[in-house]
Amino acid sequence: MSLGENLQFLRKKNDITQEQLAEKLEVSRQSVSKWESDTTYPEMEKLVQLCQMFHLSMDDLLQKNVSSIYVEDKAHYDNHMNLFSKMITLGIGLILFGISLMMFMDGMGIQEDLCTVAFLIFLVVAVAIIVVMGIRHTDFEQKNPYIENFYMEEEIDRFNKKFSVMIAAGITIILIGVIFIIGLESVFEEFFKNTFIDGDSVVCSLFLLLITIAVTIIVYAGLQKGKYSIKEYNISHDKESPEYKKGKLTGTVCGCLMMTATIIYLIFGFTGGNWGMPYIVVFPVFGIGCGIASVIIDLKFKK
């Protein structure tokens, strides 16, 4: 494509009129019109401004088909964020499922060590997935600190409808779980009264299974919501912006909290010989602490 065709595509893609572009570049509207029709060419100073404005190299603007570059970039970003959303959701889901499985096995009278081993297997796999995807995502962010807004309003509107349904479904499942554990706890206790099965543990494990399903739906919806928030992505990667500093501080604080929880869990596990309850509670407790810290940091940066 020619410079004029590329410039016309970029202007329309960013919803900028010829008058607005001319004003930004401090030239006449007729000059922009002539550039787009390839009648004349911008001066070097204006070419540099155009490259900075549309985040392109001089070679891309002058010689390449910019529209095809946008299609490739969108596919690259979209594929990465979809994979990131699925794998992080899977990691979190595996941890929660491991806890519910451990409680179910314990309630069924299975040896405690085997229950703990079952949970640790899920935990190790989940941590490996989260760490690998975290490193890949960090690498992607470093290589792509700025993302052009590829998504059309129609795409965002379609997702927002799905987002509301997913959030509603997650909340509904949690409420069903609450009703389940309140309404059936006494029934299970009576049913397993004269058996080796611990009714309380079985009910709690089934409740946690419902929570696992709900949380994975909500987490995935939230991550996908972030995928479409390209403006926030760009702001959060601008090292001079408050959002970038807030993100770095939040990540550091939450990382330290979860590392502390892991150290405490390992100390109690090795010294007490118990890898299950109640020591496993340190993870949700410190997770709540991470959430509180995030809110406090957010409020601090809003002042």
Summarize this entry quickly.
With 303 residues, this protein is an all-alpha fold. The protein contains twelve helices and no strands.
Keywords, please?
303 residues; mainly alpha
Report the C-alpha radius of gyration, rounded: 26 Å
For the residues shown, what is the average pLDDT?
79
Distance between the termini: 48 Å
Coarse structural class = mainly alpha
Let me know the largest β-sheet: none
Indicate the proportion of strand residues: under 5%
Walkthrough of the structure:
The structure is a single chain. The chain is mainly alpha-helical. The protein has helices at residues 3-13, 18-25, 29-36, 44-54, 58-63, 66-107, 112-143, 153-191, 199-228, 230-236, 242-272, 282-302. The chain is 81% helix and 0% strand. The mean pLDDT is 79.
Topology:
Layout: H1 3-13, H2 18-25, H3 29-36, H4 44-54, H5 58-63, H6 66-107, H7 112-143, H8 153-191, H9 199-228, H10 230-236, H11 242-272, H12 282-302
